Amino acid sequence: MSIKCVLFDLDGTLLDTSYDFAHALKLTCLEFDQPVLNYQDIRNTVSKGGLAMTQLAFPGFEGEALETRRQTFLAHYMDSINHHTQVFPGLNAGIELLAQKNIPWGIVTNKPTYLTEELLKNYRFASEPLSIVCGDTLTVRKPNPEPMFLAAEQCGVKPEECIYIGDHPRDIEAGINSGMKTAAAMYGYLPTEATAKDWPADFFFHTPYEVTEFIESL
User: Fold this and answer.
1) 20 included as an active-site residue
2) Which end of the chain, N or C, is less packed with Cβ atoms under 10 Å?
3) Is 41 a residue of the active site?
């Protein structure tokens, strides 16, 4: 196998951010006198982004009313962005293996830069990511291949030498569009009905520990 670089999606793949998102959405619902949602419903929606989570909590709202609630939600999230978030158990060992093997790695996320930087500033990995490409780094984002190309370039490898791991179909699509190997993080924020047959990925990781085992095999 000619994989020389590992690229991760952020939310639901590298970091478990769901509890802080759920807390921020709870505060938003309370602020607007809306019923608080079930945590599992929020978790299954995290990878779809802030707008989808806001729409989940405020069905029927649109336009300025929805945007006001989305901005309130994002403000609450910014305030509590690192209260409960952690690296998925088992993945720190994988990052340590990447450092030991001198394998470059990076992050490609649709999360905006300001939230990504605030989230990551308190984390110290065994080796630092050589690339962090956010949803607003370029004028396009996943599943467009350009963010993937940029990440590969910053990591000093060719796209076809990368594997991209993500928990949303658009992640797999982005990897395929850029000629990378792809892996579905089945432990991430998937809809409850999602199964491996729905994902045209090269690999399937059902736990974070399987990601580390894969890195060990490189």
Assistant:
1) no
2) N
3) no
